[in-house]
Amino acid sequence: MKPLPLHIPVIQNWSCHSCTDCCRNQLLIRITPAEKERIENQNWSPTNGVDPDSMIVAEQDYFRLNHRADGTCVFLNEQGRCRIHEKFGEDAKPLACRLYPLTLTPVGGTLVVGLRFSCPSAAANRGTPLTSRETDLKKLAAEVVPPGFKQEPPPPIADAPDGDWAHFRRFIKWLDASMSPASDHTALKLIRTLHWLDAIERDKLDRVDGNTAEEILEGMVRSAARRFPSLPVPLEPPSRTGRILFRMMVGEHARAITVHDMNRPGRYRWRMLRVLWRFARAAGSTPEMRPELKPVPFSAVEQVSSRLSPSLDAALTRYFRMKIQSVGFCGRAFHNAPLIEGFRSLALLYPIILWLARWHAASHERQALVEEDLVRAITIADYHHGFSRWSRRRVRLLAQRNDIARLCAG
Ligand code: SF4
């Protein structure tokens, strides 16, 4: 089978800076039976730092590398390096480790490259352009796409099934165009985009195909820009329900979930219910959830200015455009959600990231946001965006009230 051509976004840089966040932060590294066998044949023993009896865990339907009690990978050594890599070279590591934080998503005959922004270097745009990694990416792609791979149909745009990839790509193109004007604030671009997507869904325009669809989308993107020329936008404040649901979602995104939690779901659920109740009331102090987000009065978070400098705002726009260009917000990459629903979930990350960034700033006694606050907030929020399906019902409720756009408006 001919390899699928790669589509590599040109707006993003990334190199691994060996911070070891991914080896410390409870990431579940699934391994195939062949990888399990390869690691077992590497002859690990307590004298070279790894107990072979507990290095791999058999879950119900897959194998994974084990964590130590503190959440670090069993193969991470005291110097912060991977023991497999050090002893046998990079190719001896499981594919999931070699791929992270890159993602490769089949999109209608191409393989689109994206990133998990739970990696701090990805969130901070640090490193060399992704386009310079083509050789490595091709090598990984050969392992990611199984022989005889057959492309699935695209996710629906709204609720009409049976679209084709050309139609889906047209929407991706116009979503990206809607989010791209460099002179406009990220919040404004999200509000415009949510506005024209609402109209597409309401008037069932996702069913129109071909050149007519192209003209309709272009017209809608332009008309949303005319309707919302600048901030502040003429929108009501979020509803009371919207504010409560939003705060609960901040609590969900702030959580750090461990393997220990997953193995004791009842206990974990109770702890999360207490957290969500605290966020719903927003009284007193924020709960203790992870070291970098300290318990501070809710009022202290609200006192941190949500103003973003042009460079911080550009970083957020890049984040959203990368999610769009890499199709990392719907379909296969996001719980098989249709494009419009997936975009609404993505847009909701804007106020969530801002709130987490302000919490991070308040935790470090700052009144204004700096890059570190935003980068940390993106890494925390994106981790849950990629892995959690908890929020979908709440996103629908918020969309019905137009609260997503209102929350983006601040
Ligand atoms: S989190 Fe990112 S930068 Fe840090 S070690 Fe992992 S891949 Fe490298």
List keywords for this structure.
410 residues; 18 helices; 3-stranded antiparallel β-sheet; 3-stranded mixed β-sheet; single chain; binds iron/sulfur cluster
How would you portray this structure in words?
There is one protein chain. Helix 8 (186-202) packs across helix 9 (210-227) and helix 8 runs antiparallel to helix 18. The protein folds into two domains: 6-144, no CATH class; 152-410, no CATH class. The protein has 18 helices and six strands. Strand 5 (102-107) and strand 6 (110-115) form a beta hairpin. The strands form two sheets. The chain has a three-stranded mixed beta sheet with strand order 1-6-5. Strands 2-4-3 form a three-stranded antiparallel beta sheet. The chain has helices at residues 21-24, 33-40, 83-88, 95-99, 120-123, 134-144, 165-178, 186-202, 210-227, 240-254, 259-263, 265-281, 298-303, 310-325, 339-363, 371-387, 392-400, 403-409, and strands at 6-7, 30-31, 56-58, 63-65, 102-107, 110-115. It is globular, with a radius of gyration of 22 Å. It is mostly helical. The longest helix has 25 residues, at 339-363. The termini are far apart. It binds iron/sulfur cluster. The site of iron/sulfur cluster has 12 residues, from helix 1 and helix 5.
What small-molecule ligands were found?
Answer: iron/sulfur cluster
Helix content: 40-55%
SSE string: EHEHEEHHEEHHHHHHHHHHHHHH
Radius of gyration: 22 Å
Beta-strand content estimate = 5-15%
Q: Tally the helices: what do you get?
A: 18
Widest beta sheet: strand line-up = 1-6-5
Structural class: mainly alpha
Q: What is the strand tally?
A: 6
Poorly predicted residue ranges: none
Q: How many domains would you count in the coordinates?
A: 2
Global mean pLDDT: 92
Q: Judging from the principal axes of the Cα atoms, what is the shape?
A: globular
- End-to-end Cα distance, whole Å, is 50 Å
Please outline the major beta sheet: 3 strands, mixed
